[in-house]
Amino acid sequence: MQQIMETIFDLSYFAITILLGVTILRKSKGMLQYRLIGGMALLLVFGDAFHLLPRIYALWTTGMEDNAAALGFGKLITSITMTVFYVIFYHVWKERYRIKNNLFLTSSIYLLAIIRIVLCLMPQNDWLSYNAPLEWGIYRNIPFALLGLIIIVLFYVEAKKNVDKAFRFMWLAITLSFGFYIPVVLFADTLPIIGMLMLPKTCAYVWMIWMGYKGLNDKK
Predict the structure, then answer these.
(1) Cβ(17)–Cβ(45) under 8 Å?
(2) Predicted confidence (pLDDT) at residue 195 exceeds the cutoff of 90
(3) Burial 12-50 (b: 16+ CB within 10 A, else e)
(4) CA-to-CA separations, 184 to 35, 140, 198, in angstroms, rounded
(5) Does domain 2-219 have CATH number 1.20.1070.10?
(6) How many C-beta atoms surround the C-beta of residue 212 within 10 A?
(7) Which residues, including other chains, have CB under 8 Å from residue 123's CB and lie 6 or more apart?
(8) pLDDT(220) > 80
(9) What is the model's pTM?
(10) What mean pLDDT value characterizes the chain?
(11) In whole angstroms, how far apart are CA 71 and each of 2, 30, 128, 131, 198?
């Protein structure tokens, strides 16, 4: 039953996100913030495909442990693409609210992203192992969580200040994505059912892209 429901969910997620991304890119007509959002949607699918497709395969064949290397490599790729996702999201924020002269903030965003990616690439992560070390899962997610926190605050402050109806809940969607993700990092190895939180986490990402799509339509 799990493999049926999870496969349907994942394939639906791919289809919806690709459709939204391509539609946003087609309708963006030179508006940089929407080109960025459309690119984010496709990047999201690209990165998650490296993890979710091997996971679907594992569910329908010999299980997670026998496919640990493919799943681990997929997690590595997803970790990197999600970091890039939030860097792009930062530039969406800058473009949408016409933010200038923020060298320190931009440097901080890029520094956290670089630290996160470097930590992801460290061999101590042992990505290809079924029992990868929890402590390195925590280390590499500290700069990622800080990056997310900054993006949450930025969108909350500017959306409120500008009475931005289209993006007024963007901060909440980002908060939910991290709220569902962090328990998975901390507890999924010892309590596998916690891994189900990745489903609402994925829905939160689709919500982000949907708000971008709605914002584009509202602008027309």
Answers:
(1) yes
(2) no
(3) ebbeebeebbeebbeebeeeebbbbbbbbbbbbbebbbb
(4) 31, 14, 7
(5) yes
(6) 27
(7) none
(8) no
(9) 0.94
(10) 93
(11) 17, 38, 7, 12, 15
